[in-house]
Amino acid sequence: MRKGWRITAISLALAVFILGGLAGGRLLALPDSTRQALHVYTEMLTAAHDNAASAVSYKDLVFASIQGMIRQLDPHTSFLSPENYADMREKQQSSFYGLGILVGVRNGQLTVVTPLDGTPAARMGIRAGDVISMIEGDPTEKMTMDEAVHRLKGPKGTKVHITIVRPGLDEPLELDIVRAEIPQNTVRYAYMLDDTTGYIALSDFARSTGQEMHDAIAQLKAKGMRRLVFDLRGNGGGLLDQAIEVCDQFLPSGALIVQTHGRSRGSSEKYDATGQYKPLNLPVVVLVSDSTASAAEIVAGAIQDHDYGLIVGVPTWGKGLVQTVYSLSYGAGLALTTAKYYTPSGRLIQRDYTDFYDYAAHEDDSQESAPSSDNSKLTPFYTDLHRKVYGGGGITPDVEVEPAELPPFIQFLISRDAFFQFTSAEVNRHPLPGPDWAPDPAFLDAFETWVVQQGMAKQNELEQAMKDPQVANWVKLYLEAEAKGAQFGLEARSRVLLRADEQVKTALEQFGHAANLLASRLLLQHQNETKVASRD
After folding, report:
1. Active site residue 11
2. Of residues 130, 204, 305, 417, which has the active-site annotation?
3. Pick from 136, 158, 284, 436: CA 20 to 30 A from residue 349's CA?
4. How far does Cα 493 stand from its chain's mean position?
């Protein structure tokens, strides 16, 4: 193994320097300076392995040197260890084998957030708030989240033994659950906000995203959808081909979706709508946030540049680097930046990353992340209808609106997981009478008593906080949302929280503008088609 990793180290270093030397089928000779650098590297590797105060493997040294190498490139080029590479490939698939639960760490315990309908976990009666204390006899408190999730997954048809601690039960539940195929849906929510307004929230872009969007739109149309709120907030991106397939459902055939430009041969490409789907042609408002990134920015930028919808929210992250994934030896991988993304109007999506700290902290005011009121520093571009938009990184909304700022006391309760803990236990003991339930004074009193008993706040502190009508209203909202989520699922929780969502409220107010924009866009499209027909 020692010799193998020494050879691998040299091979990896050589690959970096000589892959670029292949031109026209001939291998260019390495310059003396490169040979000298490689010699120094292998000497350093051997010296560190043989003489460091603490034992270190060749593998660890090689992996560490790779990390140092990629830091010289850009913030998004990344070396993927065999474990991380396998995780990335799994996340891009449309399904995996497991139990069918969403879990999170709550108060240091591995806790079920919700079971997914129709999965083994749901059939076995697992509930929101259940604590998974052991997996195959091993305490979960000693596991990281990734370790626990990995232990819960496994081959189809195999069993996993878990121990459940449920509020209200004196004894733990011992369960043997057979793993089954679990769909990884990227359409997180798809439902009607009112008689005519559809709502779709997309979490990321995986193998099944395009088909999921098509199915969701069809279902909402069947329910009477005449306009759509398309929520891309928190969507960190994913597969480019799925972003194109989603854009296909909003744009006419032949419309430019995104273009890439790089320095290597084949890295500059244009991607057009294929006509695979019939365009929606309904008023659309797209919600974005500062964590909307990559493929999600491609979709938002294409819809905005072609005037098929309005963008509402805050400026997006600004990640517009094309990642090409290469498979390496020993199951490792390399996600290498090979080009940059540009919107149809020519806007660069990527923010400046000259200062890595400012980039990571999202503090660079000179880029697209700056407030739209200070566009003087940004480069103007124009949509199909000649509306002015700005380039320099990310997507600037047409209507900028910040999310609601929660009162400090509510933020404190959320950070202590108070609403989820209390409601999941209460719903387990006393199920809600129906979906129209709302917290009554007795439920609120019970919550306040519980908060004091848990030591989260003193009685006088709680009473003082609840005198603020804003605090009291948020408490009622979060209790209703978490209680309904525990009993009826995450969609019920989402519906409650959207009632207080300032960005959603603004989106609903902008549909008149979106309808006028779409009408102008369709008229322009008709005029262009008429001109082409007359020339033919």
Report:
1. no
2. 305
3. 284
4. 19
Q: Which two tokens stand for residue 54?
A: 């603490």
Identify the DSSP state of 74. -
CATH number attached to the domain at 187-324+334-400:
3.90.226.10
Known catalytic residue at 319: yes
Residue with tokens 């408490």: 475
Residue 485's CB is within 10 A of a number of other CB atoms, namely 25
Tell me how far CA of residue 414 lies from CA of 72, 411, 496, in angstroms: 39, 5, 16
Give the β-pairing of 388-391 and 379-382. Answer: antiparallel
Output the CA–CA distances (angstroms, integers) from residue 206 to 203, 240, 314, 438, in the order listed: 9, 9, 24, 36
Q: Is the predicted pLDDT of residue 28 greater than 50, yes or no?
A: no
d(CA 22, CA 29): 10
The CATH 3.90.226.10 portion of the chain extends over 187-324+334-400
Which tokens hold the place of 37?
Answer: 């650098």
Instruction: Name the residue type at position 109.
Output: Q
pLDDT tens digits for range 262-277? 887 777 899 999 999 9
The single residue listed with the structure tokens 């209808």 is 385
Question: For the chain, where do the domains classified as CATH 2.30.42.10 start and end?
Answer: 95-183
**For 451-499, how does the pLDDT look when each residue is reduced to its tens digit (9 = 90+)?**
999 999 999 999 999 999 999 999 999 999 999 998 998 899 999 999 9
Candidates 203, 294, 369, 424; catalytic one = 294
Q: What phi and psi, each to the nearest 5 degrees, are found at residue 327?
A: -85, 130
Q: What is the CA 229 to chain-centroid distance, rounded?
A: 18
Taking the C-alpha atoms of residue 305 and residue 389, their distance in angstroms, rounded to an integer, is: 8
Is 190 in a helix, a strand, or coil? strand
Helix (H) or strand (E) segment spanning residue 62: helix 58-70
pTM of the model: 0.79
Pull the structure tokens for residue 199.
Answer: 């709502």
Among residues 204, 319, 345, 417, which one is catalytic? 319
Tell me the CATH architecture of domain 95-183.
Answer: Roll (2.30)
Give 32: exposed, middle or buried? Use CB within 10 Å, 0-12, 13-18, 19+.
exposed
Which H or E run includes 461?
A: helix 459-466
Q: Tokens representing 116?
A: 């997914």
